[in-house]
Amino acid sequence: MVLAVSVLVVLNRSPQVRVSSQFIAGTPEPGGAPVRLDTSLYLPASTPAPAVLLAHGLGATKSSLDGQARDLARNGYVVLTYTARGFGRSGGLIHLDSRTYEVADGSRLLDWLQQRPEVEQRNGKPVFGVAGSSYGGALALMLGAVDHRIEAVAADITWNNLATAVFPNSAGGTASSGSPSTVGVYKKLWVGYLFSVSMPSGVAGTSSPTVPTADPTTGPTAGPTAGPVSSGCGRFAADICRFYQRAGVGTAAEQATVQLDSAALLRDSSPASVLSQMRAPTLLTQGEQDSLFPLSEADANAKQIAAAGAEVQLRWRSGGHDATDAGDNVNGWQRQFFDQKLGRGSTAPAGSDGSFVLAERGAGISATNGRRVNTTLQAKDGYPAVTGQRAPTTSMALSGPSQVVNAPPAGSPAAVTSLPGLGSVLGAASDAGLASTAGLSMLPGQTASFTTVPLTEPTLITGSSSVSLDVAALMPAARSAAHAPGTATLFASLRDVAPDGSSTLPANLVAPLSIPLSGAAQQKVTVALPWVVAQVPAGHRMEVTVSTTDFGYAMPADPRSYRIALDSADSRLSVPSVATRTIRNGTVLWWPVLAGVVLLLCAGYLSWRFRARRRGDRDPELTEVPVAVTDLVKEYADGYRAVDGVSFRVERGQVLGLLGPNGAGKTTTLRVLMGLIMPTAGSVRVFGEEVVPGAAVLAELGAFVEGPGLLPHLSGRENLELYWAASGRPFEAAEFETVLEIAGLGTSLDRRVKTYSHGMQQRLAIAQAMLGLPEVLVLDEPTNGLDPPQIAEMREVLHRYAGTGRTVIVSSHQLAEVEQTCTHLVVMARGRLVAAGSVAEVAGSAADQLVVADAQRALEVLTAAGISARTVPAKRALEDVFLDLVGERID
Amino acid sequence: MAATRRGVHARLAALQKLEPAGSSSSPEPTASGYRGFESGRTLPLRVEFIRQLKRRRTQWTGGFLLALPIIMALAFQLGGSSGSSSGGPALVDLATAGAGNFALFTEFASVGFLLVVIVAMFCGDTIASEASWSSLRYLLSLPVPRARLLRQKLVVALTFSFGVNLLLPGWAYLVGGVFFGWSPARSPFGGSFSYTETLQRMLIVAGYAAIQALLVAALAFLLSVLTDAPLAAVGGATFLVVVSNILDSITALDPYRVVLPTHFQYSWLDALTPVISWDDMIRGTALAVIYAALFFTIAWTRFARKDITS
Description:
The complex is a heterodimer. By secondary structure, chain A is an alpha/beta fold.
C-alpha cells in the first residue's frame, strides 16, 4: 500500500507551469476611450502548444479560472485567461457579451496570442480553443462562431437567446394565433440577482466602508465614471442599464413594450444571432438544476450549431446555476474535448458528433456515507435533434376535472420553487422527504393538477414533456369583458407522485406560461413542461400541475381566476425518453471474469494439492510392530535439531519408558508419532503405516502429550463425549464406563472443566486418551499432579493395559517412576538415542556384573590380565545409569 | 475408591487378550478403516455446532444482537425525530418510517464495524481457540484430517456469520414493526416500495452483506490458521478491515481504491434505488470472491503442512 501511495505521488508530480500577467488592449468604448484587459498567460512545460482562451462567469474575474488554466497548462496547453471588460481590473463597461465589444475583445486576445511563439501553428495557422461557463460560455460560443481561427468551443451552462432566457414562455402554439406569444414572463429574481452580483462592491449600495472602484495604477482606463455610478447600474453600459431599470416595472402592456424594445439589444448579446456561422466542433454542457439557463437553451444552441453544419456534443450535468454538484467535472470534460479536437493525443474516450451524456441525479446512493449520488447515462442514439432521429416519446393518459385557480392580488403569496443560488437548499430539503417544500410550491387554491395512472414500468424523463390545456379567464361579476386580462400568466410543472401521495418536483423547475386570451373565450395551448432528467419509478404517477404564482417571476398585480382543463381532444401527456445505458467507470464484466479465473485457479490448486487423501506408504514388514521409529530427524526452521537420527521399536505388550532430560527430543518424537509435526527426515510407522497428518492409523493411537487439551466451557463428561463423537466412531466402541472409572472423577464429571484442579484435568485428559482403548497409548508425564495412591493405581492400570496385548509409551523424567512402571526403556539426550532395551538391559548396560569381595584387588588383577574393568556401586540404580548415559557417555 | 479401581482392573482383565503377531486381530485397514474409523465421519457438523453453541461468547453475541435493535428503537423513540441536516444520510431520516426502513438503517449502522467484529470473531476464533486450549492437537490425532477439520469448522463459522447477517435485519424488521408500524419501506429516493419489493430488496441487501462478510470471514479464518492466539486472529482481521476503511476514505488513491477489500462494503445501498444498479454489487461480489478464494487457499495450504506446536 505504501508502494501504491508513493507511485501516486510520483505520478501526480506536475510539470512546471509558468504564469505571467499583462494588460492587453481591448475594443474601445463608444466614446473612443481605450480599454485594457487584465490577462494571465499560462505556459506549459513544453512549447509550442495549442492555445485555449478561458472566459469567466458574470461577476467574477480571471482569478476564478486559475485552477482550470493550470490544469490545462499542466496538460500541455498555452492558456490565456482574462477579466472581461467591466469587471475587476479590466477597463470598460459591461455590454453583456455584445458582439461589438466582448466578442470583439476575444478576437483581439486571439490576435495577441497568435503573435506568441509559444502557440503552436499548424499549416501556418495557430491552434486555438475557447471555453467558458455561463457568461463566459456565451462568449465562447459567439467568439467561436464569428472567429474561425478557433477550432474547438466548449461552452458550459450558458444561454442561446438572452431574450427567451430572461422572458421565458413555455406556452407553445395557441389555437387562435398558431404561434407562440412573443411576450414572456420576466424572470425578475434571477435578473436582479445577476445585476447585483455584477456591481462593484460599494457601488451596488452595500455598506462596505471601502470603495475599491478604481486603482489609479492598475485600474481601468475607462472605469466606472460618475455617469454609470449615479445611474445605479455600476459598470453596466447605459443601454443594458436602461433595460434593467425598465424591465418588470409597470403594467402588463408597458412590460410587453420593454420586452419588444429590448429584443434587439438582447439578441446582440446572444449566441442565437451568430451560431449559423459556427464551424468549430462544440461541446455544450448544461445544468439539470438550472432555473436561469435551463436545458432548453443548450437544446437551441445544439440545433443551431448542427444546422450550421458543425459538430456538436452534448452533456447534461447534474448541477447548474441552482446548485453545484461534486460529480460535475466540467474542467475535465472540457480538457478531454480539447485533447480530442486540438490533437493532444488523449486516451480518454472521445465523444462524437451528436453524442449525448446525461446525469441522473440521485439515482445512486453513496457506498461510503449513504448520501445520494448521480449516475451518468449515455444516450444510445445520441442527441435526437442533432442526429436527426425522432426523439422517442411515451404517451400517457392524463385525467382530472376542469379546475378553477386563483391568482392573488400582487401575486402574493407566491409559490416558491427555486431561488437564485439557493436551489440546492430546496432540492436537499425535498430529497430529505420534507413535505413542506411540496407545500411551498403548491399553494392551495392556486394550483390545478392532472395525473396519470400509476406507471407500470419505470420511466426516465429526458427533456421537456408536453401537454395540451384549455385555459379560460373567469370574469368577476363586477367586471365587464373589456377588463378581461389580455394575457394569462401561469406556471406549469411535472411532478413525480409516490403511492403514498408525497410528490417531488424534479430539479424544482417550473415552466412559465404567458397565454394571450381574448375575453372569456377558452384558449387551447400546448405547454412545454420543464426540461428535466428524472426517473419515475413504477407504481408512481406523473402529475401535471398548473399554478398561478411563482416567486421567481413577475406576475400581474390584479387578482384573477382561471379555469384550467385538459384539452378535450387530446388529454395525453407526451414524455420524451431517450434510450440510455449507464456509463460505467471501467467495465463491470472483467470483475466476475477475474473472480472466476481466480476461483478456478484456487480450486484447481487445492484439488491438486489434496488430490488424494495423503496416505503414507505402508511397510509390510512392520505391520505387526505397534511403533517403529526409523532414522527420525526433526530440524526446526531456525536450524535447531530437536531430534537427530533416532531409531527404536516398540513391540506389543510393552510399557515403554521414553526417558531423557528436558530438550532431549522426547516430546518432538511423540508429536511426530501423533502426526502433528512433519519429520525432516526418517519416519515413524504405526503398524507399518507411515504417520502423516490425518493418517487413518492414528485411530489406533490414543495420546496425552504436553498437558490436557480440554474445552473449559464444557463439563468433563461433555468433553469426553464430544471428543469421541468427533472421531466419528460408534459410541459403543468408546468403552466409556471403563475410561470414566479410570478417570475417577465421580460427580465432578458434570462440572465445567475450568473449575477442575490440575490433577483432575490430568486424569480427565488421560481418560480422553484411553477412549476406545487404543492399541497404542501414549502418555507424556502421566503422573504429574497425581497423589501417591493415584500414581500406584495408574501404574497398575498401565501394566494391565499392556497385559491385554496393547502397547503403552510413557515419557517421563521421573526415573524411579519409570523404573517401576516400564518394561522397556528408550533413553534420549540432546536429540539422540543413547540407549534402548528392557529395563534390566539398560540398567545393566555395557557390562556384566561380577560380585567380588575386594573390588580394588580384583580390579588390579583384571587390569594386569588385560581385561578392562572398573568399579561400580554394589546396587546400580537406574538413576546412575541414566546420569551415566546422558552425561558422560555421549560422544 | 478401591472398589472402583478393582472394577477397572477387572474390566481390563476381562478384555479380549490381543493375539501376538500374525493373528487375524492385528490392525489392518479394512474397508471401514482402522477400528471403524472413517475420515469422512470425523468431526461431524453437529458436534462442532454443539462445541461452539455451548460457548458463552456465542450465547452473549446472540443475546446482544437480539437486544441491539430494541436499544436502537428505544433510542429513536426517546430522542424523537432528528433535525434533518441537508443532504445527510437519508437512511437515518427514514429510520422510524416503519419496519423495513428500521431494518435497513440497522443494517447500515452495523455493517461497517459490528458485523465485521462478529464475523471476525466467529471465523477468527474457531481454529486459534482450539490451539490455545491445546485441544487442536487431540482433534488432529483422532485423527481428523486437517483439510476436513478446516472445512467443518469453516462451515460452522460461516453458518453463524451468515446467520447473524440474516438474523440482524430480520429481527430488526420485527422490532421496527412493533415500534414504528408495518408500513412498507420508504425509499430514500422518494416514494415507497410494495411489501414484496421491500422483502425482495431486503433479501438482496442481506445477501450482499453476507457476501461481503465472506471476505472478512476468509481473512479472519486465515489469521486463525496462522496464529495460535484467538485475539490476534480476531483483532488482526478487524484491524485490517479498519485500515482498509481508512485507506478507502482517501479519495486521492482513487484508481487503486477499488482493490481495497472494503471498497464495495456498502454497495448494497444500490439495491434501494428505484432501478437496482447492479454494477458495484457485481464488482463487490467479485472482489469478495477473489479475496476469499485466495485467503482460503492460503489457509488450507498452510495448515496442511503446518507443525502443530501449541
